[in-house]
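SEQUENCE-TO-STRUCTURE ENTRY
===========================
What this section holds: a protein sequence and its matching fold, both as plain text.
Tokens: labelled as protein backbone structure tokens, with as many entries as the chain has residues.
Question of interest: how does this chain fold, as expressed in backbone structure tokens?
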Amino acid sequence: MTFQNTREFAKQLDAEDSLNQYQDQFIFPKVNDKRVIYFTGNSLGLQPKRTKAYIDEVMNDWADLAVEGHFYAEKPWWDYQERFAEPLSKIVGALPSEVTVMNTLTVNLHLLMVSFYQPKGKRYKIICEEKAFPSDQYMFQSQVHFHGYKTEDAIVEIKRREGEHNIRLEDVLAKIEEVGDELALVLIGGVNYYTGQVFDIKTITEAGQKAGAKVGWDLAHAAGNIKLQLHDWNVDFAAWCSYKYMNSGPGNASGCFVHEKHHNDPDLPRFAGWWGHNKERRFKMEPNFDPVHGADGWQISNLPVLSLAPYLASVEMFAEVGMDALIAKRDKITSYLEFILHEIDQEVKGNFEIITPSNPEERASQLSVFLHGEGRSLFDYLMKNGVITDWREPNVIRLAPVPLYCSYEDMYDFGQILKKGILGK
């Protein structure tokens, strides 16, 4: 399609957009009494209007039933998490038995590493990407220290080539082959938080397992954002947060995936708790752990139903829309934003550099832009004029045109505000 940098063209794209109706199903902050252009769904998604009803339902059941809500609420609390299995499995490409919800992201990655990072002999190394999200870096460091290894020996980072912003697939595969029989685990972010690069999960998983390692994925920026086929790709395990592209609220519950090939392995270690115990016998208070079959068997504690309620509201919205429709709009609106950035760059004689891959197969709903020659003052101008975006040092702004609630007219308006912010200095 040939894009145009005009309001009329943007409005026409919105009129043709089958998801345009969903924008009215979210609550937007306002700046100067005007709804913002929201580009930070890669940090915290907007609140769906339907969320309040799901939370109120739990609050009302708590008020009316107290402890009996575990069994007699409209959505009984003791199996509340089971309502996620079907819709979540479609979002991440899994069997319903392979997904569960519990805890928060880094907690779940730590718990999954109990099962899938088992260093022994010379096989103890972990491969991750350079500049992984800091929480993942801290997790790796603490895990290898816990097992008695030194960070510099056990953690192998795949680095970007000199002068390049993204990691080449061939370099990932070469590093896996190089580490070889010393490799215990590959654990990479499915989408790099800084650059927005999407990794080839299928190919990397195959390579890591061929080398004899387990392969897991941090899908914080991938779940609800890219097409995933975790079961078919034979991924060992994965975890993701729910508050970015899935709009469940700040710091909310994490989703987990454990491939079915591991469900019947009695020798696989795990940290156990009563909510992962045989559901039919859970309240018999038996002394020996008998795990629920499937990913639910990795649960530990009674689940926070008040936190799960807004997540359930979100996954049911995803079930209505479907990932194929989301991804189709994601690709189109991201391309339109890319076009707008190039147009404004020419008009202001600027020097923008989009460091997110230009290949649609290697990116999702994010463009990270180096604003060469511009400083923090431009970011401050955008924020004060109703563009909520994200600043990363030294001078990168991350823009996430989330397809559920961003419009094409938003992209046009952003370009005009950006131009004014540069020329008005």
In short: The mean pLDDT is 95. The longest strand covers residues 183-189. The two ends are 34 Å apart (CA to CA).
